[in-house]
Amino acid sequence: xxxxxxxxxxxxxxxxxxxxxxxxxxxxxxxxxxxxxxxxxxxxxxxxxxxxxxxxxxxxxxxxxxxxxxxxxxxxxxxxxxxxxxxxxxxxxxxxxxxxxxxxxxxxxxxxxxxxxxxxxxxxxxxxxxxxxxxxxxxxxxxxxxxxxxxxxxxxxxxxxxxxxxxxxxxxxxxxxxxxxxxxxxxxxxxxxxxxxxxxxxxxxxxxxxxxxxxxxxxxxxxxxxxxxxxxxxxxxxxxxxxxxxxxxxxxxxxxxxxxxxxxxxxxxxxxxxxxxxxxxxxxxxxxxxxxxxxxxxxxxxxxxxxxxxxxxxxxxxxxxxxxxxxxxxxxxx
Length: 334
Hints:
alpha/beta, Rossmann fold, Alpha-D-Glucose-1,6-Bisphosphate, Chain A, domain 3, 2 domains, 13-stranded mixed beta sheet, globular
């Protein structure tokens, strides 16, 4: 009963904020460069960052110059920072956050962060020659006007469609109507999102490769029947462990941390000690975790422990139609 009331109060203030944006009471900022926002309605992981990476790759394949802006969740620094100038990575995960560093490493494009994403967007437009700017986790950041709004809807979003604190929704599910494109994990639930002018596509997360980093060697695994110690700092650690087991790995123990956790040298020492206790020489993690642990590679490898990194990709059904729709929408600005 109390949760129902608190959720109604939360929704009231979110609705009022959205109304103030829609009627012009809150100032917004428009760039000359087309802006595409990738976001969601639920708190926690839906795959926004892998989708941002995929969309950037598809745009680059169409000869467009792309930059990405975000907040830099989990970083120790404040304010505006250039994560990458498109050639060089200019800071580590402690200063820029795991997700934005991962984007910069995988794409080699300009990446800029600020708590106020519109400031990051203004900076990246001013500093770099770009055709398109992507906002990672931008659906609720309405200060920056966008030309395309994309949201991800996973099963967790639909299983408990309640706002905080009764559920995990940042705003009411019906607000998906603001989006131009909806990426939905369960195609069987597609029909409920096709009542307006939204374009709806199915997406799936899958592991494309498992990178094995051992002493002086980096390779890709073909045999997944290995015993591992699993570590992760993501929104849903249980889903990660279940996924690793499904792939065929035997997880002897998992050590979860809060989302965006910044690993320390003492954490790495404890992983090494735990590996010795379990008599296992493989530590498995996500790419997002690895960008924060990479600086400690020497400690791990010197103890004859291999690092296994799951490389996740997003598959979008009817991908050609998806990217053509985006290109058509932004074509008049380029």
